[in-house]
Design a protein that fits this description.
The chain has twelve helices and six strands. It is mainly α and about 280 residues long.
């Protein structure tokens, strides 16, 4: 079994999507999969599915959604996964069968690998974590609870993407980092951390002019939209590009080794934010 929350909500068995035509059944699945093997009370389900916009007879609506979810589970012979207990429902699934929990588990493995200095191992774990994403998290649920989850997961995803690119830079795979960082910079034009990493990757690819252009564009956005100048981290990256510091140039290709332990303090610092 596999539940997907990191995109459109889906229930699958062996790669086969199971029918969940009801929006409320999908919302119920997301609400229960968020805390697998834990009873989620009817009142909590109401909050997660509808927020303050409750329908008439919300308990009846939950019961109907549960019936439709059971039908989807029945196709694969998994009806016992959905359990009614103590005024609520429980989804009896291993967290490893739910993409959001796999994502966080793989991130934890990557963090541990970075702490131990095994960057190739960390790179693999980051890649596994990010492959579970297929779009905007909980895209099918329109409630304040889902919105808060989306915001939290969106921040987590961005931090993991940045940590993953830092690991690639430390491994000397600068050209691989540029396309993803360019996409992130377009999506987050005010994020100075993204801009600084993109500048570093471009410079290490020998594209100093492009790196300076990233700084100029980011500074223009910051001044125009927030009325502030770049912070110290972005200014430091800019000084290094201008030759006032040697960290960027000296680091180019320095870590392009195999999978033996090696230190990456910048990646470790970024990963502390993920936790």
């Amino acid at each position: 079994m596999n539940v997907r929350l990191l995109g459109l909500i889906q229930l699958a068995d062996g790669g086969r999507a199971l029918p969940l035509p009801s929006a409320r059944a999908r919302a119920l699945l997301a609400s229960l999969a968020w805390q697998p093997r834990t009873v989620v009370t009817d009142s909590a389900l109401m909050e997660r599915i509808w927020g303050s916009e409750l329908p008439d007879n919300p308990r009846d609506s939950i019961y109907t959604a549960a019936k439709r979810l059971r039908r989807g589970l029945e196709v694969a012979g998994h009806t016992r996964r959905l359990v009614r207990l103590r005024g609520g429902y429980l989804l009896d699934m291993d967290p490893a069968e739910i993409d959001v929990h796999r994502f966080r588990s793989q991130v934890a493995l990557a963090r541990d690998a970075v702490r131990r200095g095994y960057l190739c191992e960390a790179d693999d774990a980051f890649g596994s974590a990010l492959r579970d994403w297929t779009g905007t998290a909980l895209a099918d649920v329109d409630s304040s609870w889902a919105g808060q989850c989306r915001e939290t997961l969106g921040r987590e995803r961005l931090l993991v993407q940045l940590a993953a690119t830092e690991v690639r830079l430390a491994l000397g795979r600068h050209s691989e980092a540029v396309p993803e960082l360019s996409e992130l910079a377009a999506e987050h034009p005010l994020d100075e951390g993204v801009a600084a990493l993109l500048m570093t990757a471009l410079h290490r690819c020998g594209l100093r002019g492009a790196a300076l252009a990233v700084y100029a564009d980011t500074r223009r956005h910051l001044v125009a939209e927030l009325g502030v100048e770049p912070g110290e981290g972005l200014r430091r990256a800019h000084r290094e590009l201008l030759g006032e510091g040697g960290a960027v140039a000296a680091g180019a290709g320095a870590e392009a080794a195999g999978c033996a332990p090696c230190g990456t303090e910048t990646a470790s610092a970024r990963l502390r934010l993920v936790g």
